[in-house]
Each structure stands twice: as structure tokens, then as C-alpha cells.
Write a structure and sequence with these properties.
Strand content: 15-25%
Number of strands: 15
Distance between the termini: 41 Å
Order of helices and strands: EHEHEHEHEHEHEHHHEEEEEEHEHHEH
CATH topology of the largest domain: Dihydrodipicolinate Reductase, domain 2
CATH superfamily of the largest domain: Dihydrodipicolinate Reductase, domain 2
Number of helices: 13
Radius of gyration: 22 Å
Length: about 400
């Protein structure tokens, strides 16, 4: 069986995880061929995994090439020294655009880890570059594989309970101790990381929020920098959102609150959806609340709906499911769970929350392809640049 020859650019926590999954054979259509700057213990582990698979399958390759940088890996592809079909990019955020573009030019399919970049302009330009090539471009939004979130999206879009009135998401199970922020000189800096909780932990949540409920029209953000950790970026954020259909929302996230919770509520005209601790339930009113509100004679009536649990299947690994989908999109033309262009939406939303917090005013979220989008990008980059203390932090 022909396999997709894959290289991993960036061998930190996530890149190392993806490499191990492929080397163990958890993604049957993928074959690990190259990595960049892996630590010695990780290289030893990968080589042993590949050797073990070779012993079980004589058709399995066990060679692994190691490159110092993304530039070296891509150059090797262009010169024919390395035969690759695709790469997975899991490097610091600022590098995503440069490396994705270089991979496209080398004829490689790309899966980029979240976020697309730091500036929404980077995501937009990545999307524009991708259109020049007949290549698969995917984002690692692994939480889209969750049956619970897929079910919430299905219900919200079906209209079975009417339109969305309110969305509230409290996500504080992203707890991080000080050692996390001290694990790399680039972490938790404007110059190296490009942001804090919003850009590092929350791209998944912001992606799911707009994926399920649609993109907010405007937002007012409140970012608290170094509230719980000795860092220059935010570790707590609150955002108030308004949607074009009149719905409102609150998004709250923190890496300094314990015990953490992860509770998403979507209030619709005729029901309330609640996802808490990975379990989904719905309270159905059984009638149209708007009609009742206009005709009820009891001034103090409390409406008690009927609660039901919604059973959703489980999956073993969200990351494996995303990697399988990426491989199948290339090999079998299976639709992507998260196209590359989807990365621009959560990044645009986080940029708007940041800009709103810095300027202390509500920010309209620009529509794609408008003049305001370009003005927004310039304003955000201007404000972020003022907060970057030392570009050398990226080294």
C-alpha cells in the first residue's frame, strides 16, 4: 500500500507527539521520513519505533532523516535529496506563514498547527498563497473531531430549536504552572509567542465557537496580562460578543484558575444546550418561548423544560483522527475537517479581542475582502508592535 511520506517541521511538544503517532503506525496512510532539530531522546524513541515496525512489516521503511531547520528540510526536497509528499508544521507562531509558503513552493501539502500565525494578515496571505497551488492545506483544529461539538454544530445549524440567543463559554481547564512559561525563552512574550492565553490555548475554543455559532459581528475584550504568572502577555481574558442576528455571548478563559471547568452553553429560542465536562445535554421547552412570553397571564411563571442527555460516541485520539483525515484528503480526496483557510477565522477573532482590550473600545470584526479588513490588520499590527520589547526573544 502506498503511503504518504511526511516530514515534521518543529519537534517541540506537539511536533514530537505527531511524529510518535506516525512512527507507531497509528496513521496507516502515513510514513515518517524526516524531522527537524529533535532532541536526542526523541530521535532514539522514533528510530526504535520505526525499527520495530520494520520487523513486523518488511514493506515498512525505517529510515529517518534529521535536518537542522525547516529551510534545510525544504531545500533537501527541492534538490531531490529528500522525497516527501507533505509536512506538518508545529513551530512557534510567527514562523507559520513563512514555512507554510516555503512548503507550498516546494510542492508539499501542508498541515499547520494552530494558530495560522500571530497577525490575521498572515492567515489571509497564507490562504491567498495556497490558492496558487493544487495542494492540500489543512489546519490542526483537532477538537472539531469531538462528537459532542459536532452534535452541537448539527443542532445549532438545523434550526430545530430556533435561532441562537446567547452563547457562554467558560474555559479554565487550560491551567498552567509557572514552569510551563519558563520552558522556553520565546514563551509568554509578545516577540516570541505573539500572545498568551488567547493565542496559545484558545484558538481551539475560538474556532469551535465560530464553527458552531457563526462569527460574531463585534467584540469588547478585556485581557489581563501577568495576572497569575510573571509574564508580559495575558493569562486571563473576558470577551463580550454580539452577533448579526441579535445574539450575544461571553467568552472567558484563564490559565491561572483551579479547579478548572469547561462549560459551553448555547441558549436557543426553544431549548438550552449545555456541554460540561465533555457531556452534552439539552433542556427542551416543548413550545415557542416567544409566543408564551406574549400570551402568558402568570406574571411570575418559571418555565421548566425537560432535560435530556445526548449520547455521543467517543474517539480514541483527536490528533490521530485529524492526521488520518489529512492523509485521506491527499490520497483519497476526502473532504478536510478543517481547511487551511479556516485558520483565519479564530485568528481574526482573537486579534479583535486583543485590539479591543488595548484600545478599550468595542471592535467591529471585519468581513473578508473588505477595505476595513486591511485597515484592521494595520491597526492591530501597529498596536502589537508597540508591545514587543525585544525581537531577540524569539531565538
Amino acid at each position: 500500500m502506498k503511503k504518504l511520506r511526511v516530514g515534521i517541521i518543529g519537534m517541540g511538544n506537539m511536533g514530537g507527539k505527531y511524529a510518535s503517532m506516525i512512527a507507531r503506525g497509528e496513521v496507516p496512510l502515513m510514513e515518517l521520513k524526516a524531522v527537524t532539530r529533535a532532541k536526542e531522546e526523541k530521535l532514539k524513541e522514533l528510530k526504535e519505533l520505526l525499527l520495530n515496525r520494520k520487523a513486523c512489516d518488511e514493506n515498512q521503511e525505517n529510515t529517518l532523516q534529521i535536518f537542522y531547520s525547516a529551510d534545510d528540510l525544504i531545500k533537501a526536497v527541492q534538490e531531490g535529496v529528500l522525497e516527501l509528499d507533505a509536512v506538518i508544521i508545529a513551530t512557534p507562531h510567527y514562523l507559520h506563514q513563512e514555512q507554510t509558503t516555503a512548503a507550498f513552493k516546494a510542492g508539499l501539502h501542508v498541515m499547520c498547527d494552530k494558530p495560522s500565525g500571530v497577525y490575521s494578515r498572515q492567515a489571509r496571505e497564507m490562504n491567498e498563497e495556497a490558492e496558487n497551488y493544487n495542494l492540500v492545506y489543512a489546519m490542526m483544529f483537532n477538537q472539531r473531531t469531538s462528537p459532542v461539538f459536532q452534535k452541537m454544530k448539527e443542532i445549532a445549524e438545523s434550526g430545530i430549536y430556533g435561532r441562537i440567543k446567547r452563547v457562554n463559554w467558560i474555559v479554565t481547564d487550560w491551567y498552567r504552572p509557572d514552569s510551563y512559561y519558563q520552558s522556553g525563552g520565546w514563551r509568554a512574550t509578545w516577540a516570541g509567542d505573539g500572545g498568551g492565553t488567547l493565542l496559545n490555548q484558545c484558538p481551539h475554543n475560538l474556532d469551535l465557537l465560530q464553527w458552531i455559532c457563526g462569527m460574531p459581528a463585534r467584540v469588547q475584550g478585556f485581557c489581563h496580562e501577568g495576572k497569575y504568572h510573571d509574564i508580559e502577555v495575558e493569562d486571563e481574558v473576558t470577551a463580550y460578543m454580539e452577533f448579526d442576528n441579535g445574539a450575544t455571548g461571553i467568552f472567558f478563559a484563564s490559565t491561572g484558575e483551579a479547579p478548572g471547568i469547561n462549560r459551553l452553553e448555547i441558549s436557543m429560542e426553544d431549548a438550552l444546550l449545555v456541554c460540561d465536562k465533555g457531556e452534552l445535554k439539552v433542556c427542551e421547552l416543548g413550545f415557542h418561548e416567544a409566543e408564551y412570553r406574549k400570551t402568558a397571564t402568570d406574571c411570575f411563571a418559571k418555565l421548566n423544560g425537560q432535560w435530556h442527555n445526548i449520547d455521543c460516541k467517543t474517539i480514541d485520539s483527536q490528533y490521530v483522527e485529524m492526521l488520518k483525515n489529512y492523509a485521506e484528503a491527499i490520497m483519497k480526496r476526502t473532504p478536510l475537517l478543517a481547511k487551511g483557510k479556516e485558520g483565519s477565522k479564530s485568528l481574526l477573532l482573537s486579534n479583535a479581542i486583543y485590539l479591543s482590550s488595548w484600545k478599550r473600545e468595542m471592535i467591529e470584526i471585519p468581513k473578508e475582502g473588505t477595505e476595513y479588513e486591511l485597515e484592521f490588520e494595520k491597526e492591530f499590527e501597529k498596536e502589537l508592535s508597540a508591545r514587543i520589547k525585544c525581537p531577540d526573544n524569539m531565538s
